[in-house]
Amino acid sequence: MTEGVFTYSGGRVEPGETEDIRFPVSETYLGDPIRIPVTIINGAKPGPTVYLSAAVHGDELNGIEVVREVAQEWDHGGLEGTLVCLPVLNVPGFMAQQRYLPIYDRDLNRAFPGAEDSTSARRMAARIFDEFVEPCDLGIDFHTSTRGRTNMLHVRADTDDPQVARLAKAFASHVIISSEGPSGSLRREATDAGVPTITVEMGEAHRFQRDLIDRALDGVVSVLAEYGLRPTDAVRWPGWRTIVGDQNEKTWLRASAGGVVEMHHIQGALVHEGDRICTITNPFKAESDTVCAPFDGVIVGVLENPLVYPGNPLCHLVRLDADTLRAVEREQPNAE
Ligand SMILES: [Zn+2]
Questions:
Q1: What's the 164 CA to ligand 1 centre distance in angstroms?
Q2: CA–CA separation, 50 vs 318, rounded Å?
Q3: Among its keywords, does the record have Cell membrane (predicted)?
Q4: Domains and CATH numbers, the chain
């Protein structure tokens, strides 16, 4: 690649230029191209190349709006570096408004880095990965919770890798859940290929949630400031932060009875050990189970659909140490 020029199969974007592309990644039953929307913004001055991607799960919409607003509404006059904006990765899933690729219900987010002579999912993944992920220096992949659940905005990242840890912290979320990530996921495979990548989880599928979108946009500003792409902006500090490493620092609380769930807290809420988190009742509104917090923590994810079988997840709770707990209490003065 010539210094400062972004090239892809079929085109090039010079410094100071922006281009909206519809890039073919597969074909329909009719033989028509399946094309993903891509916006390349090449800053007038050189700097790192950053990709922003969304809707690798086709029904996870919040990130689409984050990436579109960065691509189309921000002033990139002072940009030092290049942004590769990929608002809809899983176009077939997006068209069907479902999580997986409609073909055999494949998870595009288990198909990376892909292969040219493999399944349709892996071929699609390879087109995306080779053209728009591998040429980058770092990336952010936006997700939401699975349908029927919601989560507070948080980052998932392999913080054992110092480069990934730098990126994760720069996004300035309160909670970072550290793991390598599943094999075949964009985050893990891009990181393994030398492109440090984090996942941002935010809210629920099938929605635009304005408050979360705005907070994610603040996170993108902070990341681009950290890496010098927007040198006049500041890197944010979220006020408090907890990095959740091993399994006993987080837990999914599960239903011990079938029934109707009444949640007493929303995602992002602080709870203390022993607090009632939810109750499960039967059709006669008699209580069949009360679920209490096993430790002091913050609720990262909760059920949206109030109906459960025994064993269904109710809420994702992350433990807070004493110092973090005090910082959260200062920020949430009304927390009990
Ligand atoms: Zn997802």
A1: 19
A2: 30
A3: no
A4: 6-242 (3.40.630.10), 249-331 (2.40.50.100)
Distance from C-alpha of 61 to C-alpha of 205, rounded to nearest angstrom: 6
Task: Give the Å distance between the CA of 20 and the centre of ligand 1.
Answer: 24
Looking at residue 256, its pLDDT comes to 93
Cα 44 from Cα 15, distance rounded (Å): 5
Query: Two tokens at 190?
Result: 């891009």
Distance 205 CA to ligand 1 centre (A): 9
What is the distance in A from the centroid of ligand 1 to the CA of 316? 16
Q: How many CA atoms lie within 13 A of 193 on its CB side?
A: 24
- Partners of 299 in beta bridges: 317
Measure 60 CA to ligand 1 centroid, in angstroms: 6
Distance between Cα 14 and ligand 1 center (Å): 33
Which residues of the chain fall short of a pLDDT of 50?
Answer: 1, 335-336
User: How does pLDDT run across 115-151, given as a tens digit for each residue?
Assistant: 999 999 999 999 999 999 999 999 999 999 988 888 9
Distance from the CA of 323 to the center of ligand 1, in angstroms? 31
The Cα–Cα gap between 177 and 216 comes to: 16
For residue 146, how far is its CA from the centre of ligand 1 (angstroms)? Answer: 7
- Residue 328: per-residue pLDDT: 83
74-122 residue pLDDT tens: 999 999 999 999 999 999 999 999 999 998 789 999 999 999 999 999 9
Question: Are the C-beta atoms of 50 and 81 separated by less than 8 Å?
Answer: yes
124 CA distance to ligand 1 centroid (A)?
A: 17
Q: How many residues does the chain have?
A: 336
